[in-house]
Amino acid sequence: DGRKPANPAFWWVNDKGEEVKWSFEEFGSLSKKAANVLSEACGLGRGDRIVAILPRVPEWWLLNVACMRAGIVFFPGTSQLTAKDILYRLQASKAKCIVTNGALAPAVESVLSESQFLKTKLIVGQESRDGWLNFKELL
Asked: C or N: which end of the chain has fewer Cβ atoms within 10 Å?
């Protein structure tokens, strides 16, 4: 029909050459679903806070946009944080939710007893852990 294909809204490539490409329509749809996960499954509302301790995987950007859609405050953290750093961020932000991956979950779990505001834990990836919701399954 003579039209050129649309540019992707999101294009991510890891060090192994694996790619994730989302069109604007796909990214919009996924971010709406992610906002629903945060609102419904995690019970977060406008003004609530979420701490995301993830490497820059596609879910990091997806959660960032989902938080904007839902009015949730997004606190990013580097995957180099120690348990002490994580606790400080949880306490200072009064976050109700934390999202991380399987590699960082043990550090989060080691400080959970000292974080009185945290209600929900989301894990990104294929792993499953007791007491954690799997973001990919909920999406």
From this structure: N
